[in-house]
Design a protein that fits this description.
Low-confidence stretches: none
Largest sheet: 4 strands, mixed
Number of strands: 4
Number of domains: 2
Shape: elongated
Strand content: 15-25%
Number of helices: 2
Radius of gyration: 20 Å
Mean pLDDT: 87
Helix content: 25-40%
Length: 88
């Protein structure tokens, strides 16, 4: 049997299993609502991360020109989130 939340529960499952699955679902939903930790790197550390391995990921560059900034990988470069220029 599949419920609205998406975790499949077999037909005839015990009440204990249903309760455990419900608790897991509530935990996942609560975690999704929490703030996310964005990893922070210096420019030198960022240069060692291959952007192709981190497509669509966001990091903080701690020592960019002008201070901290968010950077995203387009699969080729780490780009400033504000203007799309490469972090260097």
């Amino acid at each position: 049997m599949r419920r609205d939340t998406g975790i499949p529960i077999p037909s005839g499952a015990s009440q204990e299993l249903v309760a455990v699955v419900g608790a897991i679902e509530r935990f996942i939903i609560d975690r999704e609502k929490q703030p996310k930790l964005v990893p922070a790197y210096t420019r030198a550390q960022l240069a060692t991360l291959d952007p192709a391995d981190w497509v669509n990921c966001i990091v903080i560059c701690t020592d960019d020109h002008g201070g901290r900034c968010l950077a995203e990988s387009d699969g080729i470069n780490w780009l400033h989130c504000t203007d799309g220029t490469p972090v260097s």
